[in-house]
Design a protein that fits this description.
CATH superfamily: Hotdog Thioesterase
CATH class: Alpha Beta
Structural class: mainly beta
Strand order of the largest sheet: 3-4-6-7-8-5
Radius of gyration: 16 Å
Number of strands: 9
Number of domains: 1
Shape: globular
Number of helices: 2
Strand content: 35-45%
Distance between the termini: 24 Å
CATH architecture: Roll
Largest sheet: 6 strands, antiparallel
CATH topology: Thiol Ester Dehydrase, Chain A
Helix content: 10-25%
Order of helices and strands: EEEEHEEEEHE
Length: 188
């Protein structure tokens, strides 16, 4: 069994970083998804029984997920723990690196909490690259309430990209691959 992340073709191959927060996919590009082997990551791993098991998608130059946080992620009564909010934001920023064919580790992250994140309410997190400097990638993210559109939290982070050997090892371990999305033909 594999985990899947949706990707829009053209965004994952150039190595160019997104330069603004309103980047969108090019019309007419083929939908692709990338698959990874099951793993134990607390945020995105399908094998992490008590984790978030985020359903992550990449569309153009953005990574996004939609979810409702369960009671087990509570901080104060009825409100998500701030560390969980940080984890969700970190994950969408980290997976946004796939748009420039990078894998990396969080070097620094800042979060601004705007409003409480209510448990059981539908939310959307999205992250994107804002700048790429050799092996350092700057990213940004936001978390919004899907029912009201209200901004709940924002984040900025710097990721240290894996060197080519480590990236190859990670791709082999997780069997990272791009495949046509359902209903798309392979033209390879």
């Amino acid at each position: 069994m594999t985990s899947e992340v949706e990707v829009r073709a053209g965004a994952a191959s150039s190595g160019a970083a997104a330069s603004n927060a309103t980047a969108t996919s090019s019309p007419g590009t083929a939908d692709l998804r990338f698959e990874v082997e099951p793993h134990h990551c607390f945020a995105c791993g399908s094998l992490s029984e008590h984790g978030l098991q985020l359903d992550l998608h990449v569309d153009g130059e953005r990574c996004w997920t939609e979810l409702e946080l369960a009671d087990r992620f509570q901080g104060w009564d009825g409100i998500a723990h701030g560390g969980i909010v940080c984890t969700v934001l970190d994950e969408v920023m980290a997976w946004s690196l796939a748009t420039s064919d990078n894998w990396g580790l969080t070097a620094r992250m800042t979060v601004e909490f705007k409003r409480p994140v209510r448990l059981g309410s539908p939310i959307r997190a999205e992250g994107w690259i804002t700048r790429q400097r050799r092996r350092l990638l700057d990213t940004a993210a936001r978390l919004t309430d899907l029912e009201t559109g209200e901004l709940l939290a924002t984040a900025e982070a710097i990721y240290f990209a894996a060197d080519p050997d480590r990236k190859r090892q990670l791709k082999e371990r997780y069997r990272f691959r791009l495949v046509p999305a359902a209903g798309q033909e392979s033209h390879g």
